[in-house]
């Protein structure tokens, strides 16, 4: 029997090389960087698939720079990505959720030096691992500004519009690598039997309107009035626009985002009493996903501003986030500004 039509699928590596060939000046450095990230993703995936059997689930006993309990898998994923990027030699600076400061890299390519900055959430949704729920990795890539000899955090604090690529890996019922370089969004599914990511979701487009929203509604009492109005509106019955909408909240941003990207929907992490700035981090959660969603035809807003245009001032900065289907983000902004009420 034919090996279930696998011959028709392009591997991530082939895809990258083809794209690279479209740019005659390309040195291949960027392609190698994406390959390094995908290899780290495969290693983390392998480790994760054994969680529960080997001693890698549960907390490390440490609290990370965000004041959050660090899981063993957070630390492990962080080390795997740092190791892969160091070995690959294309990255000169890493910013990670699991490390307070930016990490300059001594690369193997000392004469050349890596020219890319990678900002990472090595493991997103990590508290879900123990209960066997999908988690992910998020990455954002910038170019080191020209002329910089010793890369530092300042070089990484560029606004999201300057990203040259962004992506995520979702370790779900299958493992997927989804990324953009500003030329659409493509998704690759890991075939574990051959250890390759295969192009399974070319040119992903997010529906303009979805019928589900993702928010931790336990925080409802501390939401601002406009958001409460919007939620009430989404819960009203109106067959014209398929309301009431459904709530779908996994509590792993990557997984919630991935579902909404494919099916349409809106993910919200607003300002709350506990997290007045929102909970998600601008540089390695909101910005990369904002780049991806825009490339897929969706929007990402803080509620009042395009996420990609927020000026960053620190690596671990948080930002309120409304991200997903175009019409749903626009509606959220209208409710937040008070120009719409749930009775409209
Ligand atoms: P991380 O595991 O990288 O710290 O991120 C957790 C984030 C995100 O994945 C998720 O959507 C959100 O936290 C859930 O927060 P609540 O438990 O407050 O809803
Ligand atoms: Mn996260
Ligand atoms: Mn994380």
**How many independent structural domains?**
2
CATH architecture term of the largest domain? 2-Layer Sandwich
Span of the ends, CA to CA: 58 Å
CATH C-level category of the largest domain? Alpha Beta
Rg on CA atoms, Å:
20 Å
Bound molecules: 2,5-anhydro-1,6-di-O-phosphono-D-glucitol, manganese (II) ion
**Which strand order do you get reading across the main beta sheet?**
4-3-5-6-7-8-9-10
Helix content: 25-40%
Name the features.
Fructose-1,6-Bisphosphatase, Chain A, domain 1, 28% helix, D-Maltodextrin-Binding Protein, domain 2, 8 helices, eight-stranded mixed sheet, binds manganese (II) ion, single chain, alpha+beta
Explained architecture:
By secondary structure, the protein is of the alpha+beta class. The protein has two domains: 3-201, Fructose-1,6-Bisphosphatase, subunit A, domain 1 (Fructose-1,6-Bisphosphatase, Chain A, domain 1), CATH 3.30.540; 212-337, 3-Layer(aba) Sandwich (D-Maltodextrin-Binding Protein, domain 2), CATH 3.40.190.80. Helices cover 28% and strands 22% of the residues. It contains eight helices and 15 strands. It has an eight-stranded mixed sheet with strand order 4-3-5-6-7-8-9-10, sandwiched between helices. The chain has a five-stranded mixed sheet with strand order 12-11-13-15-14, sandwiched between helices. It is globular and about 60 Å long.
């Amino acid at each position: 029997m034919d090996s279930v039509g696998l011959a028709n699928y392009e591997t991530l590596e082939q895809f990258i090389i083809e794209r690279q060939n479209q740019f005659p000046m390309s040195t291949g450095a960027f392609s190698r960087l994406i390959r390094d990230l995908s290899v780290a993703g495969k290693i983390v995936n392998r480790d994760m698939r054994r969680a529960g059997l080997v001693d890698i689930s549960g907390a490390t006993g440490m609290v990370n720079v965000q004041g959050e309990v660090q899981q063993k898998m957070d630390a492990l994923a962080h080390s795997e990505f740092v190791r892969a990027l160091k070995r690959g030699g294309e990255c000169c600076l890493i910013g990670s959720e699991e490390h307070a400061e930016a990490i300059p890299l001594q690369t193997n390519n000392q004469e050349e030096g890596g020219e890319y900055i990678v900002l990472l959430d090595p493991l997103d949704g990590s508290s879900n691992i123990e209960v066997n729920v999908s988690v992910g990795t998020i990455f954002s890539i910038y170019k080191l500004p020209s002329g910089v000899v010793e890369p530092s955090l300042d070089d990484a604090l560029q606004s999201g519009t300057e990203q040259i690529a962004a992506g995520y890996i979702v370790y779900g019922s299958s493992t997927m690598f989804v990324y953009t370089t500003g030329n659409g969004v493509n998704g690759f599914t890991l075939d574990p039997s051959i250890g390759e990511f295969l192009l399974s979701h070319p040119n992903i487009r997010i529906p303009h309107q979805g019928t589900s929203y993702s928010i931790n509604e336990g925080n409802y009492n501390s939401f601002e009035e406009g958001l409460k109005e919007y939620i009430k509106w989404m819960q009203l019955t109106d067959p014209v626009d398929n309301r009431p909408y459904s709530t779908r909240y996994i509590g792993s941003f990557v997984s919630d985002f991935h579902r909404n990207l494919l099916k349409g929907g809106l993910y919200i992490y607003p300002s709350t009493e506990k997290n007045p700035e929102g909970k998600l981090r601008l540089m390695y959660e909101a910005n990369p996903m904002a780049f991806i969603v825009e490339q897929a035809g969706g929007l990402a807003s803080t509620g009042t501003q395009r996420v990609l245009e927020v000026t960053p001032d620190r690596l671990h900065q948080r930002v309120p986030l409304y991200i997903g289907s175009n019409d749903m983000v626009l509606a959220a902004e209208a409710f937040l500004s008070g120009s719409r009420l749930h009775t409209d």
